[in-house]
Design brief:
single chain, 383 residues, alpha+beta, Aminopeptidase, 2 domains, 9-stranded mixed beta sheet, globular, cell wall biogenesis/degradation, peptidoglycan synthesis, transferase
């Protein structure tokens, strides 16, 4: 089905696209989230999925989006979800939100969507390591929002205002982790930097731990699909220790197959061993110039030889070698209060000398408010 929306003298077309078209468009971009690739639809097998394309009247493909459909129990109605997407020119969206977003909404409504959720990959604010360390040391701020940002991105402000004008609901304020994709992440800029530059940017503790791991004989190696069970056993141990519900082994096996079939270099499994014992393991995902620390696991034993620092350093080095401009350590909460139980996460990541980054977050557009409210209640009860 093709949806045409007339905006002034322009017409924007939205229709489903083939997997090959989707991937070809993404490959031409500087970066795009791996959650917006066709392979992610295979990973999220419990959702329906569709690749959408945005076209000019002349037929040029100017945007793509992976839509995941979550069906309501006993009804043929769906939540349409675009995690960290769609992949559009968000400056153009901010200037003409109706022209870019209304045809998408019309298409999703025609597919039975009762609501839409999306997470525009648009940054609003950044906080550098030095500013964060000073704020933490002073003890005068509890959250990132209480610290003056190092940089504010005007595009983020424009996108937020444009979404409000079209009736989208902003993300709920929350101090900890929430459902969906993280609004706050921690990133290490790599563009124009060498390994020596990055290493000098680490704090003293990180540099000491990397040296200690190397001196102790910690070896970081690439793993394959046959190593996923060992990774998963360590991941389950991590989940038990840290109090979260682990994903099953089948999830990681599906993720591995989908991503490696799409691009052999898309996902990497790294294993840190000491004297033959597996102590830490991580998955690294790359799309264009962006690399993500995706999943991590570590043993309670062997922490004294710092395998977690060793495997992180290996991922950063691989990202540099691949020409990536950003190494993304993924989600953090917005807390910088040392007594907060989540503080250790940002403290660990802060040691890389990177920056905390705020995105505009996930925005909702209810198309049927009664069904949307019921879905929220259903999901909250599922935990």
């Amino acid at each position: 089905m093709i949806i045409r929306i007339w905006v002034g003298s322009h017409v924007v077309l939205v229709r489903p696209v083939r997997r090959e078209e989707h991937l070809e468009f993404v490959a031409a971009q500087p970066s795009a989230s791996f959650l917006q690739l066709p392979s992610w639809a295979q990973v999220k097998a419990e959702w329906g999925s569709e690749s959408l394309g945005w076209f000019t009247p002349g037929g040029e493909l100017v945007g793509v989006g992976l839509v995941l459909y979550r069906r309501l129990p006993r009804l043929r109605r769906y939540l349409a979800y675009l995690p960290e997407g769609p992949v559009l020119d968000w400056d153009a969206v901010a200037a003409d939100p109706a022209g870019w977003l209304d045809p998408m909404v019309a298409h999703l409504r025609s597919k039975g969507a009762f609501g839409v959720r999306m997470g525009p990959p648009v940054v609003t604010r950044r906080w550098g390591a030095d500013e964060l360390k000073a704020a933490i040391a002073s003890g005068g701020a509890a959250r990132l929002a209480h610290v003056p940002p190092t940089a504010t991105e005007e595009r983020g402000t424009r996108v937020e205002e444009a979404l409000r004008q079209r009736g989208w609901r902003p993300p709920a304020e929350a101090g900890g982790f929430t459902a969906g994709q993280p609004r706050y992440v921690f990133q290490l800029p790599l563009a124009g930097r060498s390994e020596e530059d990055v290493l000098r940017g680490f704090n003293q503790q990180w540099r000491r731990n990397i040296k200690k791991a190397d001196k102790a004989g910690v070896v970081v190696e690439h793993g394959g699909s046959e190593d996923l069970p060992a990774f998963h056993a360590l991941y389950v141990e991590t989940a038990r220790r840290d109090g979260f519900t682990p994903r099953p082994l089948a999830y990681f096996q599906r993720m591995w197959r989908a991503m490696t079939d799409e691009d052999p270099s898309r996902i990497t499994l790294l294993l840190a061993r000491h004297e033959g014992t597996l102590l830490a393991a991580t998955t690294l995902v790359r799309v264009g110039g962006h690399a993500w620390y995706s999943y991590g696991a570590s043993s309670t034993e062997g922490r004294d030889v710092r395998p977690s620092n060793a495997v992180q350093w290996a991922m950063i080095r691989e990202s540099l070698a691949a020409g990536c401009s950003v190494y993304d350590l993924r989600g953090i909460t917005d807390t910088i209060l040392e007594t907060d139980p989540h503080f250790g996460l940002i403290q660990f990541k802060l040691g890389t000398g990177g920056e905390a980054v705020e995105y505009v977050g996930e925005w909702d557009l209810p198309l049927n408010r009664l069904l949307y409210k019921g879905f929220d209640l259903y999901m909250s009860r599922r935990g």
